[in-house]
What does this fold into?
Amino acid sequence: MDELNETGLRRALERAWSAGPGGGPVLLLVEGEAGTGKSRLLARLTDRLPEPARTDPSAAAGQDGPVLLVVEDVHRAAPDDLAALRTLLAAPPPRLACILSLRPEELPEPGLPLGAATEYPAGLTVLRHVLGPLGVEDVRRAAVAALGPDRCPPGAAERLHRATGGIAQVVADLLAPLADRRAPLPADLAPPPRLGALALRRTAALPPRHRPVVHAAAVLDEPATAADLAEVAGLAPEAGRTALQAALAAAALHDHGDGRYGFRVPLAAAAVRAALTGPLREDLHTRAAALLVRRQPVPWERVAGHRRVGGRVRGWLHAVERAAQRHADTGDLERAVALLESALATGPVPEHARSRLVALLARSAVMGLRSDRTLEVLQHIVADDGIAPSLRGEIRLDLGLLLCNQMGRCIDGQVELERSVGELQEQPVLLARAMSALSMPYWPGAPLAENVAWIERALDVSEQIGDPVVRAAVAANRVSVLLNIGDPGAWPLVDALPRDGEPVAVRQQAARGLCNAADAAVWIGHYDRSRSLLGEGVALAARSGASYAEQTGRGCTLVLDWATGRWAGLAGRAGALVAEAGDMPFIASDARLVLGLLALARGAWAETEEYLSGPDAPDRDHGPVPLSAAASGALIRLALAREDVPAAAAEAALAWARLRAKGVWAWAAELAPWAVEATARAGAVPAAREMVAEFAAGLDGRDAPSADAALLWTEAALAEATGDLRTARTAYERSSAAYEALPRPYHAALTAAAAARCTLAGGGQGTESAVAALTGCAARFESLGATWDAARTRADLRGHRPPEERRGPGRPGYGDLLSPREDEVAQLAAAGMTNREIAAALHLSPRTVEQHVARAMQKTGARSRQQLTAVPRTAPAD
It folds into this structure.
């Protein structure tokens, strides 16, 4: 017997009706398990064949012309029908094409479709086509076709393939109701009714004494040996083997090879389990737990599930604890948290077990991602006056960490951490962790001096107890404290973090320390070091299961790429992180800052406000101090661009007060230049001078290259505001050179343009070089995508071009192309700026801007400002 593809099968059937060479009767056997698509294949084959006479087995022998005989489900045929088929095929008509479909697993006589007397004569061409399960890619295509690509997340097709065994009908039955409801693929797949009926029908066809082996396979829910099935079924070995043989013959179970047996479609097990009731179900699960607990390593999570269904509460909770601890030890914190949350939410848990499970849940949660259910559990526990103070302190410690980090509620978290210190005096390991957490300067509320005092106390305690995990945690936080304030002594401590330490919790702390160090390095201006630390820290976090550190590393990368001018695709990556972070505001805060800064540079000022001060933006009074300072700097700049000097000065005063309360002046790098400019332009020059002096004093002895460059810029802004253009130009030039060295190309261009502007405003020598500098800055802004900065820089150039580059009287003709000025206005209008805002940015009147927008819309065919697009310019600048 031969196997052909679908096209070959069709041609072979057509040749059966040919009178020439190669013709003659053909028998096609289409074999496949239930649901593999035999009926659909037959429909495709017969629909495309010519129309010969169609008849039944008893009348086909008398046909002289072409005959097509199709018999489906031969495995169900009655003895008389099988006899008729055997008679027909023993002496077939010369132009017969016969197609038989069958399920090989349900044949009364395995391998013999026409019964024990199956025989094929020499003149009959016999073809065999076996339909197997779908591959993963086939399942993926089916899922995408039914649900759409947005509802098929990574891993969905693999999960669907595993659950269905690749059986086409089961895949279709699962997807059809989801497509109708426009629902995504659920995490837990239930067996569709057709599959459930098939599994239960085959089980019911067995004698009652043989059914327990099928029940055992359903409870174990994975291919198992004959001995294991017999043990769980409660059968003696020989009786178990007899029952297994019967189940295989009835296709109730499937031989997976390697001496293991189970359901052909894994989902079918759930249908059989659901039909089990009462003591029978409990006995099966109890025996399954006893079987699994003898394995090495013990699959404790599965044991827990069996013990729970079997009614053994104490054994269930013990297994849950062992399983969660193993997940935590191997870095799978999300799985540990989910398992513990489920157990604690399932009915009353005895107090002695509850305290241990809650403590493990808390420890696992602080290194994982956000879980509101865990937060509720921990808050409920610490509010219980009946628990021991030591346990309350332990839970409160992790509650404080969860609030600060995953939940973004730093003030509430610090309150819990401070309270935990008083409750942990007799537990030095946990006490050191609490003190170490309170040392982090990132959050507002406590001045830097308190943070330093906490880390010193934590260091003393950790050195006394010698616990490796606590020492790693304290070392990681010590790095964060010193590096964020620009202490040069921090770098050797970074190198000493225990990247290869044991147990895995040590590596998790090292990963957190590396990612925190990378973040600190961004804010103080060590960008190459930050990128190196990020690569190492994120990789270590992924290997050790420190999910939270891994996600914060992604946010730090966005800020680093913004600072160093890697803006291509940056907005898309930041938007993706905001979407993924969901309800974890701290993880999304870096991304929202970057989106706001990018929007400001291109003139999308409404977006800037939404990202930096909208309802979903981090609270600048309660959020991370360096992010709040950077956000305030951008909002001050936006207010100045809108010529709202009072609003700019008010934001500057609030932001400066926040920074002064914290005392980490390295973080003023993104705030100080704009705050000083706004304060000086508001008429408070003495206050602006005091701000510059305070900034300079705060950087004395600190290693903060970005803040050093910003201090020069701040001095320049003050000098320009007070009319000292020569001093301003020199300070701007020095600041630009410092930014180039970092490198920070956007800031280098901003300060270089400001230096050129001072030169032009002062008149005299240097005009030609200043024009060249402005021209270069405009090009750099354009290459970065800073549309607004490019446009306003070109506006500064008007009236300063050499005579040979100036156009003569009259307006040049551009035809259907946008003029350079129309192009600039169109880009800013498309970004969302109002006519008045564009006028202020480009030093034009609102009426002129209105005319430019109207002409741009007419030339481009845009129906709205948002549809305006830039058209290539071919004419000289106007």
Notes: The first strand starts at residue 26 and ends at 32.
